[in-house]
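Sequence in, structure out.
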Amino acid sequence: MNVRLTRTQLEDLFWRATVKCLGLDPGDSSEAVQKRVRISWPSSETGNADWERTENVVFLRISPGLDEYGTLSDISYKPDGTGGTKEVVQYHRNHQVHWVCYGPDSDSDADSIRIGILRDAIRASMLESNVAVQPHIREPVRIPEQDENGEWWERCDLTAQCYELVTREYAAESIDVPPNIIIQPE
């Protein structure tokens, strides 16, 4: 068993959580919800051309993180059910989650996400996918942005760190169990 989320699965997990943090229904396929939280950046060459200054829009980006905790792994050996042994390796992938909020309510949106992502219902849904957000999330940062016409757009950024628990199992024929290792019963 090799369990690791793909980039798309991870983005979808955080998209759904972000939509819930903003009080919207992730099952709603209307354009209002789909345009409110976006995973990809706009492809327009004219900057903010595909939404209005009065609209609230959140962009979500997930990138790899690096820290000491994410470099550790736990290795154990267990019976494979057929009389053999399997090696089980567990480790945490570190991810940086970035929200860039635009619009007149950008500060409020960023704060709603910062607090909402740690609510029990949202945390529980993320834990089902073996993902946990670090609870130490800094306050959102207001970063007004000027466009090519010299007009200012309200913008507020938020960053959080999360860990994904990954489990990989290796079959007995591909491993050599060291003689001093105790095989743990299932």
